[in-house]
Amino acid sequence: MKGYKAWILEKNYQYQQEEVITIIPEHLFNEFKNWRQFRSDQAEACGVIYGERRGNHFLVTGITLPMITDIRSRYACKRNVRGHQEVLDRLHKQSNGKIQYLGEWHSHPQKIALPSPTDLREWENSYEYLHKEQNMDKMLCIILGLEKDWVGVYIQGQLLPVHKVLILNN
Question: Which domain holds residue 62?
Fold first, then answer.
């Protein structure tokens, strides 16, 4: 039996946003465990989230893993665009456009992950570029913490945190 987790950004009437559901296979949560910074000598890890956009919703099918060309330290990770982009380009082509970029993930050496000012600035730049150049209106942002992750969705120019998590089994 495959397990899935769903993050739900519930409808927010103040900003007239619709509910956004993100479905992630459990095996990806297990993959994330490999990149949490439990030891003081572990550098931040980062990558891209990819999968399918289904209306307002995300179906995550995979992530890129840190690459040797990424610049990583205890408190920072700068993803090398070329290696990660090549993976996305190949998957996009093989799936006839079904698999797409959905967002970004990285780790923090914090018990409870929170976005830093750098994270907020980088995500805003990425969202603005994607919105302008590729007409994408939603982007997923994940930070792995030691005990609690931070998940947000950029939508309509605003980054909104996700608070509701469901575990689904099929």
Answer: 3-169
What pLDDT is recorded for position 17? 63
Specify the pLDDT at position 13. Answer: 45
CATH number of the domain within which 121 lies: 3.40.140.10
The Cα 112–Cα 110 span in angstroms is 5
Residue type (1 letter), 40: S
Rounded Cα–Cα distance for residues 164 and 148 (Å): 13
Number of domains in the chain: 1
**How is residue 149 written in tokens?**
């992750």
Give the global pTM. 0.88
CA distance 11 to 20: 8
Q: Are the CB atoms for 36 and 144 separated by under 8 Å?
A: yes
Our measurement of the distance from residue 167's CA atom to the centroid of its chain's CA atoms, rounded to an integer in Å, reads 18
